[in-house]
Amino acid sequence: xxxxxxxxxxxSAGYEGKRRAHVRMAELGARLVIVDxxxxxxxxxxxxxxxxxxxxxxxxxxxDVDARAVLDLLRGADEQPDGVLTFWxxxxxxxxxxxxxxxxxxxxxxxxxxxxxxxxxxxxxxxxGLPTPRAARVRSLDELYxxxxxxxxxxxxxxxxxxLAVGCVRVDSFPTLPAVYRMVRGVVDPEADVxxxxxxxxxxxxxxxxxxxxxxxxxxxxxxxFSSVSQNWPTAEPSFQETGLHCPPDHRxxxxxxxxxxxxxAVREFGFxxxxxxxxxxxxxxxxxxxxxxxxxxxxxxHLIVExxxxxxxxxxxxxxxxxxxxxxxxxxxxxxxxIDSLVYAPVTGRLATLPVAAEGVARNGAVLDVDVHTEVxxxxxxxxxxxxxxxxxxxxxxxxxxxxxAISAExxxxxxxxxxxxxxxxxSLAG
Length: 432
Fold this sequence. Notes:
There is one protein chain. By secondary structure, the chain is α+β, with helices and mostly antiparallel strands. It has three domains: 7-104, Rossmann fold, CATH 3.40.50; 134-206, ATP-grasp fold, A domain (Dna Ligase, domain 1, 2-Layer Sandwich); 211-422, ATP-grasp fold, B domain (D-amino Acid Aminotransferase, Chain A, domain 1), CATH 3.30.470.20. Helix content is 30%, strand content 28%. It has 13 helices and 20 strands. It has helices at residues 19-27, 44-47, 63-76, 92-101, 109-116, 118-127, 141-151, 177-187, 253-270, 302-310, 314-322, 356-360, 402-412, and strands at 7-11, 31-36, 53-56, 83-85, 135-138, 155-159, 169-171, 202-206, 211-220, 223-232, 244-247, 275-284, 287-294, 338-345, 350-354, 368-373, 380-381, 391-399, 418-423, 426-431. The strands form four sheets. Strands 13-12-9-10-11-14-18-16 form an eight-stranded antiparallel beta sheet. The chain is globular, with a radius of gyration of 22 Å.
């Protein structure tokens, strides 16, 4: 079997920015069958010739229930897939169950479930003897107080299920706990964000110091055949909203190598054997530590960054893995370029008046890999005073080295977004 002509079922297409992944799979020759909720944007991919079929299925957030619904749907539609995958965090546990039920390649359901739940990640890591921060489940303010008394400060409140650091907040003292608890409880709302259909319990865990990295891995038969490391910039604490990253890293090489080795050890100990994984980890004063394991390819521009720097197509790697095909990776021995990924947030609360990077971002002689606009001019936004500021845009540029890439990024972001805010009944213009 080859990719060309193979039927690949995609469980949930995700947000519209993931269109590139589906287009790339179609370019590789895969016959795509997309399964998603009725009314999802991905239904248009059939008319566009990207997908062969689009099938509607209800999503409850219960992985067992949703997997049975997908299996019933595929049988009723007379679809016999050669592979099953997803690039969408919400659906990794469903995709694992569907692949297992059909006898198709994939990782063990138990491993995927443990990675999907941040609390189960901590619990399994501890049982496996991997160094891991202490953590406790929190379902009430009283339980938060009890957990803080046991774990101490600084600590991090976060949802058990989530992505993009939504609802993740650093806490440093008992008096701050009630306000943080109310704020995070308001964020982890299944009605507002479908990712919390899987559950909206919280956890409190020890704070990890140090520098954070994204470690992208490709596994084949339990062996890591490729790894890429991106170095994250400091977050806007007390929230953990990402501010940006660069690839390749310029951190101490020995520390980076130790971090990659630890990430590979952790995923193998969890039971992962195949596919593309995205591991977030920190090089701390006590050594490498896992922040979370994502049983999927990294989101956003991750695949663009890895391909630009190392010449490796993570989308093709994931498709081949889902079909049980050997990998055909030929990574560059040295970085082919350097990439800077910058995120732009609302500087204050108000209404977005201008977003210069959106207008200028595509005209830079090939230096721009991607400009992803998250908020349109005229929309209401919130600033850092609300802890979780509104994400406006993401700019990804490349240069011959990090110095050039940083200079290009700084030039393109030199003019900040402008937000108009009500001030004493008049409109005041505030620049970030």
